[in-house]
Amino acid sequence: MKILNYFYLFIATIIWSLATPLVKYALNDMDPYFFLFSRFLIVAILCAPYLWILLKKKKYSTYDWFNIGLFSLTGQVTLIIFFAGLDLTTSTDAIIIGLISPLVTIAAGHYFYREKINLFKEIGILVAFLGAALVIAEPLLSQTNGVAKNRFLGNLLISSTIMIGTFWVVYSKFLFGTNSVKLISWMKKINIKLHKKKYSETEFTILSFYGVFITTIPFYLLNFNEYNQKIMTISPSSLSVVLYMAIFSSIVAYIMYTKAQAKMEVSEVSFLSYISPLFSLPASYFILGEIPSIFSFIGLSIIFLGIVIAKSFDQKNSLKRK
Fold first, then answer.
1. I need a surface site. Which of 49, 141, 238, 317 has the fewest CB within 10 A?
2. Cα end-to-end distance, the chain, whole Å
3. Taking all residues of the chain, what is their mean pLDDT, rounded to a whole number?
């Protein structure tokens, strides 16, 4: 069963590795909000039969809808922030900054679920954060114009989605059956009461798609005439990206990811994220022609150093066990 979970994670990782440069390419034809509306409109149509059967068979309480809403808000809806950031910065910056996500997730797993962490991992996380800070600030170090400020803002938005996404991973594990006294206590401090009730991974993932679709509708209505005109001018390649993101990056990847992470430790879920740049950085070069600047490359090297330090303890432990 664990092999199957790793397979799910591997497929989701590959799909999402290619997503960032592809989306950046498509944003040349449409703005982030129109892209997301189009993507999740397709998702909503494809998942409509499942939704109809689900709502016919199940009745949700007010508290259930609260959990669905929070799951959607911290998972899918944050894509609005990510896409807005990606529109301002480069695909390469977004990919490099995203490398700290697994280490942030490991730290959250330790705090909320008492998963093992040690001095090596603590040092590695700190080093990786320093590298990410350099990449975030890189536009201001290499340029002084308005483009640099936009890229810097975009990098900050991308970074914020990592923190929100980490909470989504922690919260998802709780919803899907893993208890966390820390999370319950933490939520009480902000006057949110959590009760223990196991939900279905696929069910919540599908419902969260409709959460983000509903969220994008106001953006579409506010730009109704402009977006309707753009529909006729979208290139076939950009349209294929929208379809890829709807079918594979949304339905396939999210269902596989939530199924796997519900049954694995947070640190295990983060492991495959380390291989993502092996696919995403070459894709950014071949699709967009992007090459990391000297500061971004230094930041990338520092992040990788942090990852090596964080994983070195695990390697030593595995050798001892042998």
1. 49
2. 23
3. 84
